[in-house]
Amino acid sequence: TDEAGQWGPSFIPHRDSIAAEHGFVSMLPLPNGRILASWLDGRFTKVATSEEAEAQQHGHHGAGPMTLRAAEFDAQGQLFAEAEIDQRVCDCCQTDLVLGPEGPVVVYRNRTEDEVRDIYLSRRVAGEWQSPQRIGSDHWQIHGCPVNGPAIASRNETLAVAWYTMAQDKPRVQLVFSHDGGRSFGAPIQLNEVEAIGRVDVVLIDESTALVTFME
Question: Would residue 126 be called left, alpha or beta, if left means φ above 0 and alpha means ψ between -120 and 50 degrees?
Answer without folding.
Answer: left
